[in-house]
Design brief:
This protein has 203 residues and is mainly α. The protein has eight helices and no strands.
Length: 203
């Protein structure tokens, strides 16, 4: 199951960074989390109907992994627009810390809930958590964009992301100790959207 989820990250984080540079990131994050909520709710309904099987779960996990792959670059690029420049290092540290803590506590808590209430209840709670994220993002007011930056082609951006990955050895060293991402995900996140450049269709 972890292999299926990791495969979607491997395939889609690079184009996800390019997409987040070209669309309204607020709308993108909301759309992705609504899709993830629908997928989790679908798993809960299928569980209640006793229609789940290992193959269906693997397919759903792949699509959920795609959602997380597209969500990660856009979500990370929003941070500099939410906090001030002085608060940004602390915010980045706190974000990484909470992700690592949730990666430790989440599976244990999820396993306990599965034992107590069943997998379908966990899927339903997961769907609600995605909707909470959507509500929070919708309440966030984006900075007003005064000028638009010319958008480059997706092919050009993808090539630039791969070049940055090869050149930036320090970036890969900093990501080597991460417990959340695979060793190659650091390279794909080098194509993360430029937080200083507004999305082409910011509203």
């Amino acid at each position: 199951m972890s292999t299926v989820a990791s495969l979607s990250f491997f395939l889609f984080t690079l184009p996800a960074g390019v997409l987040a540079d070209k669309v309204d990131r607020q709308k993108l994050v909301c759309t992705i989390n609504l899709s993830l909520a629908a997928m989790a709710l679908g798993l809960a309904v299928l569980g209640w109907l006793h229609l789940l099987n290992p193959y269906l779960i693997l397919v759903c996990m792949f699509f959920i992994g795609i959602g997380f792959a597209f969500n990660a670059p856009a979500w990370t690029s929003i941070m500099p627009q939410v906090v001030s420049d002085a608060e940004l290092p602390s915010a980045a540290t706190l974000s990484g810390l909470q992700l690592n803590i949730s990666g430790i506590i989440g599976p244990a808590l999820g396993g306990l809930l599965v034992l107590l209430a069943g997998a379908k209840f966990v899927f339903a709670v997961n769907a609600v958590s995605f909707l909470v994220v959507v509500r929070a993002i919708r309440r966030w007011k984006q900075p007003t964009v005064l000028a638009k930056v010319p958008s480059e082609s997706c092919h050009h951006d993808l090539a630039g992301g791969n070049g940055a990955r090869r050149r930036d050895l320090g970036f890969r060293r900093r990501n080597r100790g991460s417990k959340l991402y695979l060793h190659w995900s650091g390279g794909s996140l080098s194509c993360e959207p430029d937080s200083n450049r507004p999305a082409s269709y910011s509203g």
